[in-house]
Specification:
Layout: E1 4-9, H1 16-25, E2 31-37, H2 48-59, E3 65-70, H3 74-81, E4 85-90, H4 93-109, E5 114-119, H5 129-137
Parallel strand pairs: 1-2, 1-4, 2-3, 4-5
Bound molecules: adenosine-5'-diphosphate.
Length: about 150
């Protein structure tokens, strides 16, 4: 059976933090589906189309990467896509606390689903989409925090 992982997130915007997790997970899976979750009430600053296009710019020539979006429960999207793994990044203990409960709940909802965590490299663990968005809103330069293929 193919090893398929969903990498769910808001990606608002996609950062070098997200890219680091995906690039390091690529050897572990046959396919990674980067999935923009649109069920949350989180920031609507960037459109789904815009976010999908940025990610396409980064991974357009990688056949192991698929880009999609979904509404509803992540475990339901996993089932639909035949994916048994959820990929997430961990920056610090705050991420761990939050992610632990979600991973356990997702496994409770569907015991075929395992969440795989990769720890972020220390030099980029301060990067978050929320902070990047604030810098953009205030006219700052974020080019070093986002992949070079993306221009915002
Ligand atoms: P969410 O809206 O679910 O928090 P994000 O788009 O912020 O999603 O992030 C998606 C995933 O990427 C999460 O697992 C998050 O921990 C991870 N991530 C975000 N920024 C970084 C970073 N700088 N280093 C490592 N992982 C990160």
């Amino acid at each position: 059976m193919k090893r398929t992982a969903i990498f769910p997130g808001s990606f608002s915007p996609f950062t070098i933090g997200h890219k680091s997790i995906i690039d390091r997970a690529l050897p572990l899976f046959d396919k990674i589906i980067i999935a923009i979750g649109i069920n949350s009430e989180k920031d609507k600053y960037f459109s789904i189309e815009e976010r999908m296009q940025w990610i396409k710019n980064v991974y357009h020539n990688n056949s192991k990467i698929q880009i999609d979006f979904y509404e509803g429960l992540t475990v339901d999207f996993c089932k639909k896509m035949n994916a048994n793994y959820i990929l997430r990044g961990l920056r610090d203990s705050h991420d761990f606390k939050f992610e632990k409960n979600i991973a356990q709940m997702n496994n409770d909802l569907n015991n075929k689903i395992e969440t795989i965590f990769l720890i972020t490299p220390p030099e980029i663990s301060h990067i978050s989409s929320t902070i990047i968005r604030d810098i953009i809103k205030n006219g700052g330069d974020v080019s070093k925090f986002i992949p070079k293929e993306i221009s915002i």
